[in-house]
Amino acid sequence: MPAADPVDLLRATGARDGRLVHLEVIEGRAGRTADWPQWADPDLVEGYRRLGVAQPWQHQVLAADAVHAGRHTVLATGTGSGKSLAAWLPAVTAVRSDHRERAAATGIAGHRRRPSTLYLSPTKALAADQLAGLERLLAAAQVRDVRVATCDGDTALTERDWIRDHADVVLSNPDFLHFSLLPAHRRWQRLLKGLRYVVVDECHAYRGVLGAHVALVLRRLLRLARSYGADPTVVAASATTAEPALTAARLVGVAPEEITAVTEDTAPAGRRTIALWQPALTEGWPAEGVDLPARAEQDEPFTGEVDGPRRSATAETADLLADLVTAGARSLAFVRSRYGTEVVAEQTRRHLREVDGELAGRVAAYRGGYLPEERRALEEDLRTGELLALATTNALELGVDVSGLDAVVMAGWPGTRVSMWQQAGRAGRAGTDGVAVLVASEDPLDAFVVHHPETIFGVEATTFDPTNPYVLAPHLCAAAAELPLSDADLPLFGLPDEALPAELERRGLLRRRPRGWFWNIARPERPQDLTDLRGGGEPPVQIVESGTGAVLGTVDGARADATVHPGAVYLHQGRTFVVEDLEDDVALVHEETDLAYRTKARSESSVRILSVRREQTWGSGREGEPAEVTWRFGDVEVTSRVTGYDRRRLPGLEIVGSYPLDMPERVLPTTAVWWTLSAEACAEAGVGKDALPGALHAAEHASIGLLPLLATCDRWDIGGLSTALHPQTGVPTVFVHDGYPGGAGFAERGYRAALEWVRATRDAIVSCGCADGCPACVQSPKCGNGNSPLDKAGAITVLSLLLRSAPA
Fold it and tell me: For the Helicase ATP-binding domain, which residue ranges apply (predicted)?
């Protein structure tokens, strides 16, 4: 137990200076239990009892009964509500029942297909955590005839051979299915022939392009299993979301009425406190003339308007994390980027060294790109309490059962309400009280959410489109390589006719035969390599220490130019490295101590319009009438290139030097929404030729920041470009495009909600108290031009011009 109440600590440190904007208390509830199902294996039930589960919760039994009966099921309840029991109870019971029946059978009846279960999670950390929990359960039940194992990209080849031949429960992820298991399905036919259950954990995490990819991987899996004579039941576990049955149906490829949805959470829940936190003003910007109420004893929201820059969310998070650790609270800090996790962990350790050096050694970072053994060691240290605090990316957001955590700090809005509640739910698991702090980052949406707490309470639907032809086409190729693609398969993949396979045949990827479409084996590439489920499409880059040859980690290939270019600073577990060279998917680095600067890449981009799918016009532009504004949605090609980088001095990150780079161009075919209006209309409204580029640039940044309010996306899922004279439109143009090949539906959502989007964007800029533009309104952390030029007043004028032209 912590030595001090985290809520009291937050009030004491944040109420008087306005950082604690809002405190929301969600009262706990009592749980409701049910009897164990009669069909459940008695040894397994006894194992649960030895682990402290005397009786299951009602929602666990409802879901387990549906799964045992062979109905596709989705269990959508809160974090820590025990969703895994609904899957493991029928899965392990099936294996044990088969063992008993096989032992009692005589002759050929004893040689049936052994039932198997395939568990899929979005992260390796979650699969490892589930394996540890399942092994504890089997040990408590004294069950030795159920063999379980994880199998993913980190698994040695010899272990894979054993898993293929013997494992009853295999824990993996969609990436391994796509790249390894499904292409080599004949080697996995023992597992597929007996496949009884497919468990899809944290299915709400599959949204946008990733969701579409995973849905198609699942459909390929089910298609192959049925070809081997199996008929698997899918059980999906999800956080509380809107329309969970629809989400599960899209994943599996069935009608929503074929899904049994269990949504009432009957597990007990402790009191949860949500604190909305605004970083402090930077030194030299006191809140003069503003009434900051002393709210140590009251919870009224802070409403004072303060001009001036604020500290970064990462710096504020490090301070809060250090305070919580000092007070004895076991904590997690969720940070948006890999780089940010390293920064938060190191700053927290630095603060703690001034108090207690032993505490500093119990803080670490956790992120993708670490070697597998490093990740496993960190996970175990967090479970045992050896670590008091961990700064992590969303890799630990999903499902990892870490008991005893007291607090969670979120450095910036996680992107969706589901993610926010998942992260907040890491604290206070198993019915205990927990505290979560959302620290607003320098982002228009963060500033809006912190001052409008009503926007974060509620649920949202998980959206993705498996019929997106850019996503579907490579999966059709992979499916055809696994098993000839027939007309009967087209409905499974959401195809109304054979137009798309015929187009793939025309391009030489498939070949039509009487039995259906086959993969063209004369092609030099493998069909599974035509797409990357995570959207990048480029191989990862290894980070190698030049002096020792040690592999420190990896970085996504698509991000390598901007993060590990020559001269870039790379952080790893508190150590600082400088990149010497980037070539052949390897970045060579050497360690530097006491480095007084960090680096940030600069880039340039252009957008070429390929086709227009939809178009609408606002206003007429005739004399005395509103200006004509044209909105379009269509296909574009975004070309970008890293042109150089800046060195920024610590701690204020002032630019102390700029250096050129010669990097290759990257081309992204995607979809975009864009609007145009005439330069003459802007000039008449008061935005002349010199001010127009900055006004459009500021409007673009703010638009990108506010689109996640309307579309279930993250600002890092989208990009943009503004220009006072686009070569194809011939007039001032602002683009907002999806950041994934072929598009993800986010730009299309912006087109459909154009009026609401523009209104929210203008209001966010107007309501910001800064004078000339700041990260909370028009500056962007993604900007490759260093946020120059920007004209806040001009952006307000241009957006007001758009609103005057909008239809009533």
Answer: 64-259
One domain, residues 687 and 586: no
Q: Is the dihedral of CA 296, 300, 306, 309 positive or negative?
A: positive
| Burial class (CB within 10 angstroms; exposed 0-12, middle 13-18, buried 19+) of 523 | middle
State whether 424 and 319 are in the same domain: yes
Give the integer Cα–Cα distance in Å for 270 and 278: 26
CATH number (domain holding residue 382): 3.40.50.300
> Is residue 433 assigned to a domain?
yes
DSSP E strands in 173-303: the ranges are 195-200, 233-238, 260-262, 272-277
User: Tokens 């330069």 identify what position?
Assistant: 679
- Per-block average pLDDT, block size 10, for the chain (808 residues)? 72 82 87 96 96 95 97 90 94 93 67 87 85 94 95 91 95 95 96 97 84 94 96 91 85 93 90 89 47 29 47 90 90 88 92 88 84 80 86 72 79 81 77 86 78 71 73 94 95 92 95 94 92 70 90 82 92 87 91 90 92 93 85 95 91 86 90 94 92 95 86 79 95 93 82 91 83 81 79 94 90
The structure tokens listed for 135 are 């092994």
Whose CA is closest to 552, among 597, 582, 587? 587
Omega of the bond leading into 122 within 30 degrees of 0 (cis): no
Q: Are residues 590 and 625 in the same domain?
A: no
Which helix (DSSP H) or strand (DSSP E) does residue 694 occupy?
helix 692-706
610 lies in the same domain as 582:
no
Q: Which pairing describes strands 148-150 and 434-439: parallel, antiparallel, or unpaired?
A: unpaired
**Pick from 270, 282, 240, 274: nearest CA to 438:** 274
